[in-house]
Amino acid sequence: MASQNTTTAHLEGLDQAPSNSSLSQPSAPEPFAFAMLLKPEYVSVIVSALAIIWLGAHGSLRRPPSAAAAKPKNGKKQPKEEKFQEGLAASDAILFPIVAAILLMSLYYLIEWLQDPTILSKIMRGYMSLMAVISLARLSGDALDILTSLIFPTTWADRSGKVYHIDPDRRCQYLVDAATGEEVIVPSKITPLPGFLSSRVLSTSSRQLLWGIRHLYTEEWTVRFAMHGFFFFKFNIKLNDILGFLVSLPVAIAYHYTGWNLFSNVLSTAMCYASFLMLSPTSIGIGTLVLWGLFVYDVVMVFYTPYMITVAQKLDAPIKLVFEGPSGSSMLGLGDIVVPGMLMGIALRFDLFQFYKKQIKLETVELATELIDDSTGRTVTTTQAQHRRVKSPYVDTRGQWGNRFWSTKVGSLVPVKEATEASAATAFPKPYFYASIAGYTAGMVVTLTMLLVFRHGQPALLYLVPGVTGAIWLTALIRGEIKDVWGYTEDGSIDTEDVIVDVDGSGRVVEKKEGEKLDGEGEEQLREGEVAKKDKKQEKEGDYDVFLFSITAPRFALKVD
């Protein structure tokens, strides 16, 4: 992945300024450089980069190893957990810079050979537009999910702090009794709407329509596409995913034919977002190594070769963010967002890991052991008290932002204490992520300052990598969690089931027993294998589909009030 940097396109505007303009002075004092950072194009660069990283990091949240898989409700099938398509290993710290350099040099010499970058720009624009359609569809679908959750949340709280739960199967709203845990249906609230709208008196047909719309937008559809002997695809989607794809098509077409910066920025944002969802280092340590490898690459390509700046200026493709200002334009390559953003994303997931780790409980269990008495030959049963580690079920973040909005009182930033799902999914403590945000912001400010002072394109990773990595590891040092940060990994090795553990006198775990299993992953693969064997057996014994394409929607049963 070639890292593009803050370009010198703005410097061209400076060179064209009148000679009496302070912008054209080659030795601008540093205080003036800081004042220039308030220009709209520079503020747009920083704010846009932070917004993309925030969205991508939260979109990349997965079940952490310290949480148990969520149990399906109402007899529904256990959803398959989403995995990263590419997990970076330690060797990628060397491989990434080499591959990025080869790609960048290839683009440079291809531009020089063609003499006219317009041809290459059209080819790249068409290819990147096609790739951006899928990315923008995912971004649009997730954005529509947030909008849907704001209209049809699953929980909400009133002014007194009571948390109401919306049940689409029974078409009612209920409270949970704190003492007994029983569900108490509220007769006056029979609509799927939250807040003051929940008590509105509506006709039967209007209520049916609202419940139907909610069902249409929140339930998953199953898509099957197969050709006998060649391939078989099966995946779940929501209506919002389809609508997101329909939104992405006209945007990509409009960019392909117009080349406007607005469309380019939208597609670039979507590709950054998709990168966060597909690509991640398997640990914070590996992420740090990869960043420092690309740090060296970025410095060499900007300061010691003409490759980076030439390609960034001449190639017109959605691989950068461009912001126009009164005196010129400012540009930031996608690599300067995605590369540090990968580490910031795993920092956020580590925060979630720590949140669920603190909720792990130790339950006392009696273990029975049968032994044969050598003297009598009889079987003797002995019992021993042990402790079992029990993890809290994971709460999926998708669809929880509406719950957080409706469960947060006016003037507060966090949901009420009783809204446990919204808190677990969105409002958990994020010290490492916020520290990385601060480090990234500081790195961007220094990058733009150096750009203004030296009037030369700057390798943004020169300042972003120390800022982000330094902020994360300094936070770990201050919190005394260096060992925890270094030991955290997403390769599955610490994703274990609830097991029997030994505890000391203070109740802390001191040793793990042998025989731990991966948390549900091995069993899931075994079940999938058994299902596949069963399907093959049925296929041999009976009819089979030569060609199949189907979209199956969950049935919505009409209820007569």
Please characterize this protein's 3D structure.
By secondary structure, the chain is of the alpha+beta class. The protein has one domain. The chain has helices at 9-15, 30-36, 40-59, 92-114, 117-151, 204-218, 239-258, 261-278, 284-303, 307-314, 335-357, 401-406, 420-426, 431-454, 461-479, 482-487, 521-541, and strands at residues 86-88, 155-157, 163-167, 172-176, 183-185, 221-227, 231-237, 279-281, 320-325, 328-333, 361-372, 379-390, 500-503, 509-512, 547-552. Strands 2-3-4-5 form a 4-stranded antiparallel β-sheet. Strands 11-12-13-14 form a 4-stranded antiparallel β-sheet, with no helix packed on it. Helix 4 crosses helix 10, helix 9 packs antiparallel against helix 15 (461-479) and helix 14 packs antiparallel against helix 15 (461-479). The radius of gyration is 28 Å and the shape is globular. It starts with 8 loop residues before the first helix and ends in a 9-residue tail after the last strand. The model is unreliable at 1-30 and 511-526 (pLDDT under 50).
* Span of the ends, CA to CA: 58 Å
Number of domains: 1
Structural class: alpha+beta
Helix content: 40-55%
Q: What is the spatial order of strands in the main beta sheet?
A: 2-3-4-5
User: What average pLDDT do the residues reach?
Assistant: 78
| Main pleated-sheet profile | 4 strands, antiparallel
